[in-house]
Amino acid sequence: MHAVRNGKLCTKDCLCLYVCPTGATDTETGQIDAKKCLSGCRLCVDACPSHAISLVLDEFPAQQEKTEEIINALYKLSKSKSEQEKIAAAVEASSDDPIVRQLAKAIGTSNRLMAEDLLREAGYMLPQSQNVKDFLQSLLESNQPDDFPVDVVEKLLKIL
Predict the structure, then answer these.
(1) How many structural domains does the chain have?
(2) Range of weakest confidence among 3-17, 35-49, 66-80, 135-149
(3) Which one of 26, 106, 136, 145 has the lowest number of neighbouring Cβ atoms within 10 Å?
(4) Which of 17, 33, 56 is the last residue of a domain?
(5) Strand partners, 5
(6) Is there a domain that residue 12 lies in?
(7) What's the predicted TM-score (pTM) here?
């Protein structure tokens, strides 16, 4: 685990500089050196008055196995969110009121994000999942057009 700074929230109060025991924080660049950061000491996080610093995992845990019942429920809920997104898009397109259009657009975007999160939670294409690795490998092993970015797929597989 290491600290990261959200540059949009940072008010340059720089208290993090004074409490970091390793000098990992740098307000000139807005970066926190993950290699210097002590795993989870939280001193900079707790000292930051603008709440611009938070902790993130260095490695994400493996995806947990889910029962078929749970996966089906997640897919069903995702489908519902997709349908709600379509309804919101129809309301947005048909309304003359700019406030209604703005609200419908926000509802549609929210439903799309929730549907994507539900699909990821169900195991569909999580970056760290074996599903993604198998899918990428299958792309390399099957016939692809001449302009297919083989080097990009190989790089992704190496990273994963």
Answers:
(1) 3
(2) 3-17
(3) 145
(4) 56
(5) 53
(6) yes
(7) 0.46
